[in-house]
Design goal:
globular, transmembrane, PIG-V/Gpi18, endoplasmic reticulum, 2 strands
Length: 370
């Protein structure tokens, strides 16, 4: 794990160095860009002042901070309460720590399924995704991925109370955090069915873990609904105010048509390419007959990404917790490294160059919401 975590840290620190150089060359401060960009400002506002901030952009478009789940701002608030750090620095500390914890969880899953070499390659590939710069920002994806990875690991090892508790916390981190709960519930249902079919007795820990898994996400959605006067629909009304809804991919297809016919800035075709690659990787992932919790977790995240409307350029970020998609690539990279080491070095170097350059472009130059 130390080797995997060291490679992860080296990759992300090198990416930060490239980003910092780009920022200074263009008259920006890198820590400000990392700690106070786009959604980060909303989270820091919640951490400092609580919920209640709304922006009326135009008729039918209302940005409310109730769209943002509470775990990350709560962690930032806790750090600022016990340390001299300001909001932005506290947000970065939470994200960087969570990214390291997530990397350890991803490694543990890779090792359990395919051995230490694949676990290490899986972490390295996750660190070198084109959009992995988000892991170094004051964003919620590292927190969600940390809870998701360890919850899924707990399911794989039969630790149901841990699985349910961590899934509940994942559900408090982001809207798509419920993918973890769905994975836990689907696997628990399968285990219950298999146990009862054999005439066995289902353990209390399995029942309790399954019951805990959806509580975090459900509690926040119901709380927002109560606050908005519509218990079950209030949260989704808030999301529609941001232009986000699940429309079975209609909005994504419409924007894809625009890209093909008219073109747009680099970030949009890159988004289309990354999402298309994710679909292909999921097909390859299923061919390896993966464990049920990983297959379900990844499928739900992919479904949300493909079927959701709203900020098209944010779709790669939504896929960061879908790290099992990288398992086929990690296994291929390990095979290549054993047969032709220099080929693996060239491939890894190319991925690193793309990740560092594109990450700097996204944060410093693109001026596009992440």
């Amino acid at each position: 794990m130390a080797v995997a975590l060291g490679l992860f840290a080296a990759a992300r620190l090198t990416g930060l160095a490239v980003l910092a150089a780009t920022a200074w060359a263009t008259g920006h401060h890198p820590l400000t860009l990392l700690g106070r960009s786009w959604d980060s400002r909303w989270y820091l506002g919640i951490a400092a002042h609580g919920y209640g901030h709304t922006l009326h952009i135009r008729p039918g478009v209302v940005y409310s901070d109730l769209a943002f789940f509470p775990l990350y701002p709560a962690l930032v608030r806790a750090v600022t309460a016990v340390s001299p750090l300001g909001g932005g620095a506290a947000g970065l500390l939470v994200s960087w720590t969570a990214a390291a914890v997530a990397a350890c969880g991803i490694y543990a899953i890779g090792v359990r399924l395919h051995g230490r070499a694949v676990g290490t390659a899986l972490v390295l590939l996750w660190a070198l995704l084109p959009h992995s710069v988000v892991l170094s920002m004051a964003y919620t994806e590292p927190v969600l991925t940390a809870f998701a990875a360890w919850s899924l690991y707990a399911v794989l090892t039969g630790r149901w109370l841990w699985a349910g508790t961590l899934a509940a916390l994942a559900g408090l981190a982001r809207p798509n955090g419920f993918a973890v709960a769905v994975a836990v519930l689907a696997t628990a249902a399968y285990e219950i069915f298999r146990t009862l079919r054999r005439g066995g007795k289902v353990t209390h820990s399995l029942w309790t873990g399954a019951a805990l898994a959806p509580l975090g996400w459900s509690a926040y959605v119901v709380w927002v609904g109560h606050r908005k006067g519509d218990l079950l629909g209030g949260y989704f009304a808030v999301q529609r105010g941001w232009g986000s809804s699940f429309d079975f991919g209609h909005g994504s297809l419409r924007f894809t048509r625009h890209l093909i016919l008219q073109g747009d800035r680099l970030v949009f075709p890159m988004t289309l390419l990354i999402v298309a690659a994710a679909v292909l990787l999921y097909a390859l992932f299923l061919l390896d007959r993966p464990p049920l919790p990983l297959a379900v977790h990844t499928a739900v995240l992919l479904l949300i990404t493909l079927g959701g409307s709203g900020f098209f350029e944010s779709k790669p970020r939504f896929l960061l917790p879908a790290f099992p998609l990288l398992l086929p690539l990690a296994r291929a990279l390990v095979r290549t490294a054993r047969a032709r080491p220099w080929h693996a070095v060239v491939v890894t170097g190319a991925l690193a160059g793309l990740s560092f350059a594109y990450g700097a472009y996204l944060v410093v130059l693109a001026d596009t919401p992440l």
